Amino acid sequence: MNPPVCDLWPCWAAIVGGNRGGMSTATTLTRTGFTTAVEAAVQAPSMHNSQPWRFRLCGEQIEVHLDTDRQLAVADPTGRAARLACGAAVFNLRLALAMQHIPATVLPGPQGTTLTARLLLGPPRAPTPDERELFETIPRRHSNRYPFLDLPVPLEHRARLRSAAQRESAWLDFLLGPLAIGTVSELVRAADRRLEADPDYRAEIARWTRYDGERSPDGVPAAAGGPAPEPHELLARRDYGNRQPSRRDYETEPVIGVLGSYTDSTTDHVTAGQALQRVLLTLTRDGLVASLISQPIEVAEVREQLRIGLGRYGPPQILLRIGYGTPGPSAPRRPVRDVINVTD
Prior knowledge:
Elements: H1 13-18, H2 31-41, E1 53-58, E2 61-66, H3 80-99, E3 104-108, E4 115-121, H4 129-137, H5 155-167, E5 171-174, H6 177-196, H7 199-207, E6 209-210, E7 220-221, E8 255-260, H8 266-285, E9 289-293, H9 295-298, H10 300-310, E10 316-323, E11 340-343
Parallel strand pairs: 1-11, 6-7
Antiparallel strand pairs: 1-2, 2-4, 3-4, 5-8, 8-10, 9-10
Helix pairs in contact: 2-3, 3-4, 3-8, 4-8, 5-8
């Protein structure tokens, strides 16, 4: 049975509006502050919106655990994608704690355990302008699986996104030219065909798809899954059950970024997740939207072909389609009380 937690669930604006004054002298995190920070953490992305995380407050540190009951047995048997999601949640936690004037140092969890990261709380300091801007972007960020506008993404935006990944010890490469984009689209298609041939894979997606009128705190609502996939599309998409066709074509020259790490250790999966979230929040702040493409990462041979084609030693962890688009439907989140523990 989980330890009792605070019954006070502060509103989202508690950090944004309530901590703009003088610096706190507290060196520990209250239960209310912990809950508020986790409210930001759970806004992170995860495959099929499975939300495979749990958070524990232990004195002057926060533990982020992988919830193995929510790990995708077919699409993510090794837990790589779940650790990526936990890493994205860790980055949101860092921002939320900074807004409470509490910086945090992230340490990796021990190998072979569910503990993916520990956040050690440091001495008080005011948040930086960058932390404040990225934190305030968290509620606006969500995956957009609909067509984007055929508009170029300025080079200065791409440079900021590469820098964002580098700041979190990861790399981000953009595909340049029709040949590179065409090659990667074939890799995406090949991986998608391989995955779709597995009935267990299709059944797993169906279990995490939510249809109109179905109330659920997790999974992907059919509307948020984008329009019904078409065979002629350049980038193969997962089918989340939406039978409505697209009202316009997808981009003919999509902007595709590949985010990767320097090794494929469990620690680097969490690191890449933090980099992914910094990139996603940075592009959202710049008025861009993104969708995540992971089929080529889920098939080992295709992932290796992608790595070699990029000329990278370290492995790719996720692909991003980036551009300008209208806001789309968001996916739900589980109540914070379902994902936290407090240890006195």
